[in-house]
Amino acid sequence: MSYSDFSKVETVKALNEFLADKSYVDGTAATQADVTVYKAFQQEYPQFTRWFNHIASFTEEFDDLPAGTAPAAASKEVAAEEDDDDVDLFGSDDEEVDEEAEKLKQQRLAEYAAKKASKGPKPAAKSLVTLDVKPWDDETDLEELLANVKAIEIDGLVWGSHQFIPVGFGIKKLQINLVVEDSKVSLEDLQNQIEEDEDHVQSTDIAAMSKL
User: Fold this and answer.
1) H-type helices in the chain, by residue range?
2) Of 28, 129, 167, 197, which has the fewest CB atoms closer than 10 Å, so is most exposed?
3) What is the pLDDT of residues 125-165, one digit of tens each?
């Protein structure tokens, strides 16, 4: 089954069912198949992907987040207003009730802020990235390429292990791991900086990425 085309919601549902007993699209480790599926989903649903990744960063705070109005609930309230213009779902004839509700809301927000402050600053969000660096040809000096890549120093960037992987016709690409602090390092800028080594580097690609 191929998951390179996500033009229909049914295909996403099929992928969800396919992954019910799997951690990866193909095999027992992350591969380019996972990258292809992730990029296709991100391209088809960019806003949902952005929202999902952002909300996932609050996982440890889910129980402490303040109350809010879910979109579905808000839609029901709007529909009810259209059915009966005389019903005010958001207001009250009793001003004292409104004042008590606002006081309770402010109290809960203050308690949440105090609880969050008591926990101290959260550790910096980091990502583990596997980067592919492709040379021009089989005559490219891979050791020089590697040295030039690891010579790049950015606050929040730590280089890790590497390997040279055959890609065909005697050509090998550099695959290198790195850890970045998300707020300090732009992967796009890092790739552009690596690709400035035009004598050795043809292109770069993010092969895999996960949050730490």
Assistant:
1) 9-18, 32-44, 46-56, 71-83, 95-118, 142-150, 187-195
2) 28
3) 999 999 999 999 999 999 999 999 999 999 999 999 999 99
